[in-house]
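Hi L.,

You mentioned the student needs an example of a multi-chain input paired with its predicted structure. This one should do, with 418 residues in total across all chains.
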Amino acid sequence: MRGIEVTAGELGFYSCHTCNLVSKVSRDHHEAHCARCGSHLHHRKPDSISRAWAYLIASYILYIPANVMPIMHTSSLFGAQSDTIMSGIIYLWVSGSWHLALIVFIASILVPSAKLLAITFLLISVQRRSVWDPMQRTKIYRIVELVGRWSMLDIYVVAILVALVQLQSLATIKAGYGAVAFGAVVVLTMIAAMEFEPKLIWDPKRNRHEQTAV
Amino acid sequence: MDLSSLIACHECDLLQKRVALPRRGVGRCSRCSAVLYRDSPSGIERALACTLGSLILFLIANAYPIVGLEVQGNRVIASLYDTLHTLWLDGREDVALLVGVTTMVAPAIQIGLLLYLLFPLHFNQLADGAIPVLRFLQFVKTWSMMEVFMLGILVSLVKLEHIAHLQVGIALWAFGALIPLLILAVSAFNPDEIWARVRVRGAA
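Structure written out for the whole complex:
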């Protein structure tokens, strides 16, 4: 098989996304189901680009309150204080735990922003039917899928601090609106990455081949 | 032509022939090197053992406190449930739901459904509704984030270390052991074991 690169789609084969069974379906067949597991069969995930854009744009919008609004309110004997994601990191840095500041910075600032940009890049490249290094773009997609969940770190930290620091008169911590927005960004970008169809990265390649062959 | 000998890459759609794998071998896409299929010898037994272990650890992780804190005689002990409860009482139901689903509900469903599929498979049978269950399991897996939660616990412990005396609870150790065990269970479980037992409609 090696050498003759042919995709299932080109031969009119549909691969089931649940059980991987390859089946032959006629093109004009709208309601095709997998003969083994009954899943809906489709050539590519339906409307994947517009769905991914929708979730992505929502994430961009929520990304602003997630970073500007406080994720945590602390009140103690020494007064009240509100922390955004960034001010929390700066606090960690100046209080001497630079390694922790680095972990939180990677999980809460670097990963979410890099992920937003990476999905944007993938979507634009796919829409423009780019043929630029599909392997490289597939790797980007895999990294996005792999690291996205780690951004939940700050939400969990806030949740645990809220539960532990309930010392009546001494100190209490409450979660702020920023935490809600940030959680929503993480969930929405994860859905955007799931909606994205990686096969679209490779599709223009074969069309280019066809054109040169003709 | 026998279509069952073919496999299309789920990431780049390249059509390839399935080949017999060596023991513990992995079949990768020849174009984008995505993992297409695996050989996991006695995978069902290993997956079942690891999932049962995960179940026990999961119960411990949820029943016992994760961490305790003491400042000037004031003592607070927090289990996973307490964490959700406090968030809820503070009016942060949204955050409580997000944390609850990803650290408690999704892992519980994941472990439960794995057992539901694996027990009958151990006796070479297929559970009722195995196909929708498997499909749901693939979905739930994405939202089960205990490993991130674990890192969150560690980060908060370091944050509080300066201001209070901390006591690490049993649940923290249970979480620490549960995470690799559940990963082992998931990687030992080969869904092809299920598909091999499902008869294809229209096939002889």
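You could point out the following to them. Chain A touches chain B through 68 residues (CB under 8 Å). Chain A has two domains: 1-43, 45-213.

Best wishes,
N.
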